[in-house]
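Box 3.1 — From sequence to structure: FERM domain-containing protein 5
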Amino acid sequence: MLSRLMSGSSRSLEREYSCTVRLLDDSEYTCTIQRDAKGQYLFDLLCHHLNLLEKDYFGIRFVDPDKQRHWLEFTKSVVKQLRSQPPFTMCFRVKFYPADPAALKEEITRYLVFLQIKRDLYHGRLLCKTSDAALLAAYILQAEIGDYDSGKHPEGYSSKFQFFPKHSEKLERKIAEIHKTELSGQTPATSELNFLRKAQTLETYGVDPHPCKDVSGNAAFLAFTPFGFVVLQGNKRVHFIKWNEVTKLKFEGKTFYLYVSQKEEKKIILTYFAPTPEACKHLWKCGIENQAFYKLEKSSQVRTVSSSNLFFKGSRFRYSGRVAKEVMESSAKIKREPPEIHRAGMVPSRSCPSITHGPRLSSVPRTRRRAVHISIMEGLESLRDSAHSTPVRSSSHGDTFLPHVRSSRTESNERVAVIADEAYSPADSVLPTPVAEHSLELMLLSRQINGATCSIEEEKESEASTPTATEVEALGGELRALCQGHGGPEEEQVNKFVLSVLRLLLVTMGLLFVLLLLLIILTESDLDIAFFRDIRQTPEFEQFHYQYFCPLRRWFACKIRSVVSLLIDT
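Predicted structure (token representation):
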């Protein structure tokens, strides 16, 4: 009896798993879920913890054992999706950026979106000119520390905050100047709202980059925004396609296709190559979800999408949430006391506690960061304002998915300094998702090779195992070999043609085999089915049966008998 109870309790413990979710302010939420718990259950736990009602804009991101990022599907089991050993680690992030973040109903939602965009700015995904960068950073500073106070804020106080991957002393002075003179009196909520309004106007607002290569072999980044599909090469937006112009999204292996129907019935097919089939499938699923969320009027219009065709058995996927219009209508009906938001180091804006967080990302002083060389760049090129410019071949993009970052520091150069690197490099600082230590070393090494900075989270995680110069050189060769493993577009086209021919042959042989089986059933079986009986009674079938099939059958029977007799005689 006691043994049965102990075995039952051990089985129940085995069915429970510990999950840790990293929130947008870098704090962590830990909970326990059952083996068969769906993603929706975990997401609802998180939203309850955050006191969040406008939750459709957010999602949970994780990395599988093959280091591929995914969004957690709410209709499927958490354990089956992660395919890794517990305890599980995931990240809570903005999945669908609001088209107008200032129109969000509740301050708690705006605050979380503010934290996400602040991360995008820090990790190099939100590019802008120096003037815009200084204003955005000043809004963050006002929200962080409030009004300027000469007694509390000595000269150079803005340098204690890291707003961007790299910035110059000149930019720091500009940030402090705006904070001192233009933002006095703004509450944290007002500063965050102004920050969102400014960020919304930038070209790379809402960009979550997917590294790919175009048909010419040039590196590119594909992204889905609230307004459409975006392709970025270098620091230029080379394609922008509105959602109502996108007719179909499809993938086969590593190849991603975007079907576009523009004015005057002009149809275009854009083709890109992802690093792996898994990355291409993730890109396709993100596109399906974003198109459904932003384009459709209601969730009842959502349909299951398939990437298959006559010769290719692809994947099927269906977006399971509400669409943007429904979310806005639902938000307008929210009627409750605004929940309190505890901002680190600031006076709470409401009187009812609901969410308490630790230190915010930008509050970490530079002296506490790992000693990694971060060059202060003063002369950097801006993101050019070009919606449909011609893609430019860049030698730095030719051989690898990790673009090189070039920087220059010239004190005498009086050109306007901007925050965007010459090479648009969002892959240098993707969202800090949990990966293995070896993968972290490769990521950090690639950034050192390319001259890019490391994010704070990755520096802290890899602090204990910094590679030596010899290891760096060895790992560098390994990393370059891994990056160059992707075949060229011509090889991809040849492989696709061979696979298509093989599929055509297999389908033809299958059809012939099915027709042969049907013919044998019609002529040799005694099945008295109305369908077969009607076919047998037609004059054409009777003529075929007596003039062709019966002689052919006798000929085969004769040959088989002769072969059998020959075998018996020998």
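Summary of the box: The CA atoms of residues 389 and 448 lie 31 Å apart.
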